[in-house]
Amino acid sequence: MRISRIAKVAASALALVLVAATPAYAANYSGSGASFPANLIEACKAGFAASGSDTYSYASSSSGTGQKNSDTQLGDFWMSDSPYTAATRRATLIHVPLVAAPIAILHNLPGTKTLQLSAATVAGIFGGTITMWNDPLIAADNNRTTTSVVYKKDKSGNPVKDAAGKLVVLKTKSTTAHYTLPNKKISVIYRNDSSGTNDNFTKYLYKSAPTIWTKANSKVFTTSFPGDINSATNRGRITGAASSTNVSSQAARTPYSITYAEVNYAAANNLKVASLINPADKVVAPDAVGVGAFLASATQDANGYLTYNYTTKEPGAYPLGIVSYMLADTAYAKKATAAAVKAIATYILSPACSQVVGAKLGFSVIDGALKAKALAQIAKIG
């Protein structure tokens, strides 16, 4: 009897210790939306949980879903790769530039290490006017001598500016390439869901090659497509899949295919990454430095929206760099929710997430003036 009583007392004491070790105020907050920043948001979950008491979860789908969920306040925060300007947007919703990365042109072209493509060629491939891999325009982009630049970088890996605000170039490199391109049809794979990736990709095509990509950008690829996507030439050759995960995996299963997605999907699917020939006629890879050079020319308005300069002559600018926005509220019903969303946004923007974790995944660090503007937007969450 005595032993039983002692055991009960010990069990009660252990239960009290376990309760004391688990903060009563710990909570899990939920986000949803764009697939573009999902890998970074997911990879930083453990670090955020270790930095405080709260946790978060993130449901990756599309910018369109994130925007829709923000309308109905489903969850606590939302992600969108393009500004949300619809009439249904709540007046208390703000945009926080939170995650920067390149949209990469990924391809499954056997026998090549990589490709370099001009905006006009990319527009022709995805617009259906260039249908064969040995097209003279693709050959002209690749069989030539090209130059690239190497910037001076800071400790965060971003290009450094001088006193006049110009990026500091350490050196330039010239490369002569020659490819024998195959006489094979190009299989084009596009995002068939409503996504900010589509919006940014088609905006690049429309702004950079307007005589070829003649229709304005859209979150729905087929809405922006400049011709007849169901023509005899395109039917079965141009196909769609939902999300970056699915377009990448479909490209991996389809020899001679091409698609667009976050750069980190290349390694996961054994795809190759094309470089772009920018308006300065320099070849630029989709990396953090190229994105940083491109974003340096962007402007931001009072809503937090960024306007990209697709005609910038900055030599090392990768013109398909984008920012994914957190959509957050300035009037949450609960103060604890506002504080938690602020903490999540601040952590994702911090070097512990964006630099230490993000660099390995192909994301860029938001720093300098753009980071200051992002922090000012975070301060408005309430």
UniProtKB/TrEMBL annotation:
GO terms for biological process: phosphate ion transmembrane transport. Keywords: Phosphate transport, Transport. GO terms for molecular function: phosphate ion binding. The keyword Transport applies. It holds the Pfam family PBP_like_2. Residues 27-351 form the PBP domain. One of its GO terms (cellular component) is ATP-binding cassette (ABC) transporter complex. Belongs to the PstS family. This is Unannotated protein. It comes from freshwater metagenome. The lineage of its organism: unclassified sequences, metagenomes, ecological metagenomes.
